[in-house]
TrEMBL record:
InterPro entries: ClpP/crotonase-like_dom_sf (IPR029045), PDZ_sf (IPR036034), Pept_S41_N (IPR041613), Tail-specific_protease (IPR005151). Residues 177-393 form the Tail specific protease domain. CDD domains: Peptidase_S41_CPP_like. It holds the Pfam family Peptidase_S41. This is S41 family peptidase.
Length: 450
């Protein structure tokens, strides 16, 4: 991937000092570990690699805290570049998903405001404390949720180490249950296996696949699932990416190869467009797969693909990065029918840049936007999100069915299109409330090794 793929090698002129060469600066030697020492390094990396490098302001005060200095360099349209320091915990961000393995939306129903649990990750604090999709939250940390405080309470959840939720359940048959309070303590949630099942409707055999994140090495699991689909004569696929915030581009390429039977190995999968230093990089499906996948080959994936002529993709405002690549970059090769809400809009990629000048003391790590992403037709620039073909909000019912259940709103819509049998009626008494999006900085991270 040209010289931008190479590891960043900091050449030390002096072991404990750094020489400033920012525009219009007099020659200055900075002591290692100072803000000026760190910030001058940050400035030089951003000037070289950052997609909007020509928009970087000059002569920003080098004495600023490095987090603030980095932020001051960012282009106003950039929502996703970030920097952190391993020994500065406050430079890291967390979300309800990363800390507790879940996320929630908000609705108003019969004059009351509820948080709705959208998903719960396997092995997470949320799952291990009995939380599940569809449960309703009436209070967070013993504070009742209202029209005026739901967003501020949601922001708290992304920063807390401990949380309590007051939970009720609801079905149309039984109504509301008695409330219970669940306490959660944050800890790391392990990688998630894709979930799948096969649904039958008429002469259609529908393979439902839910991928929560494109982890490195996911290709083997996807290969196994599609071999099962193939053995069960699946002839339609519904891919659920509504809670998938991105991940590894090689895993996204693997799934694309399985979904579109007309793809050949040298077909263009993705184009990376950088600044004047990065240039333009084109990758075929095979090249993108092999960038970070050494176990499963293109040919194994090709042999396990299903003869599809379309794919249904369930999406929403948590669908981002590698998931958006699936939607955008499959379009030149297969009919894509996206159902749900507009996606987040992460049409970009980058790699980590580490300050390794002092081997005994790790420095700042930068994740700047370096490339914009395009498909084989040159289509991209979806920073405002990818619009679905069929717009539908999953929270239109007070009763939220499990993912993969044929009664679930978005999946039911796909089944309705496939079968033509008519969809489940929606409840119009639920009002969906907009919420602040918690900080989700992840975008496509490319390898930067030789």
């Amino acid at each position: 991937m040209n010289h931008f793929k190479n590891k960043i090698i900091a050449i030390l002129i002096l072991p404990l000092f750094y020489i400033s060469c920012q525009k219009d600066d007099a020659l200055v030697i900075y002591s290692a570990g100072t803000n000026e020492y760190n910030n001058q390094w940050i400035y030089e990396q951003m000037r070289r690699y950052y997609y909007w490098n020509n928009e970087i302001p000059d002569n920003i005060d080098l004495s600023l805290l490095s987090n603030d200095y980095f932020s001051s360099l960012l282009f106003h349209q950039d929502r996703f570049s970030y920097a952190y320091h391993p020994s500065i915990p406050e430079s890291m961000t967390s979300t309800l998903r990363s800390s507790f393995g879940m996320d929630i939306g908000f609705i108003s129903y019969e004059g009351n405001v509820y948080g709705v649990i959208l998903y719960v990750l396997s092995g997470s604090p949320a799952q291990n404390n009995g939380l599940k999709r569809g449960q309703l939250i009436t209070a967070i940390n013993d504070i009742p949720i209202s029209q005026t405080n739901y967003n501020s309470l949601y922001e708290i959840t992304g920063k807390a180490d401990d949380l309590s939720f007051t939970i009720v359940e609801y079905t149309y048959e039984t109504g509301f249950s008695q409330s219970v309070t669940k306490g959660l303590t944050s800890y790391y949630t392990f990688l998630q296996a894709p979930l799948y099942n096969i649904l039958l409707t008429g002469n259609k055999r529908i393979g439902y696949l839910q991928v929560s994140h494109f982890d490195e090495g996911l290709a083997q699991s996807l290969l196994n699932i599609f071999n099962e689909f193939k053995s069960q004569n699946v002839n339609e696929v519904v891919l659920d990416l509504r809670y998938n915030g991105g991940g590894d581009v090689s895993s996204a390429a693997a799934l694309s190869i399985l979904l579109a039977p007309t793809i050949v190995e040298d077909d263009l999968f993705i184009t990376f467009k950088g600044n004047e230093n990065g240039g333009v990089i084109n990758q075929s499906f095979k090249e993108a797969l092999e960038m970070n996948e050494s176990v499963v080959s293109y040919y194994e994936l090709r042999q396990s693909s299903i003869p599809l002529n379309r794919v249904f993709i369930l999406c929403g405002n948590n669908t981002a990065s590698a998931s958006e690549i699936i939607i955008n970059n499959l379009k030149p090769y297969i009919s894509v029918i996206a159902i749900g809400e507009k996606t987040l809009g992460k049409d970009m990629a980058g790699f980590s840049i580490s300050d390794n000048r002092n081997e005994s003391q790790p420095g700042w790590i930068l994740y700047p936007v370096i490339y914009k992403l395009y498909n084989a037709n040159g289509e991209g620039d979806y920073s405002n999100g990818v619009l679905p073909d069929i717009e539908l909000n999953e929270l239109t019912d007070i009763q939220l069915f499990p993912l993969g259940d044929e009664n679930e709103v978005l999946l039911n819509k796909a089944i309705n299109i496939i079968s033509g049998n008519g969809g489940r009626e929606q409840n119009n008494t639920v009002k969906v409330l907009s919420k602040t999006v918690q900080d989700n900085r992840e975008f496509i991270i490319l390898p930067n090794s030789d």
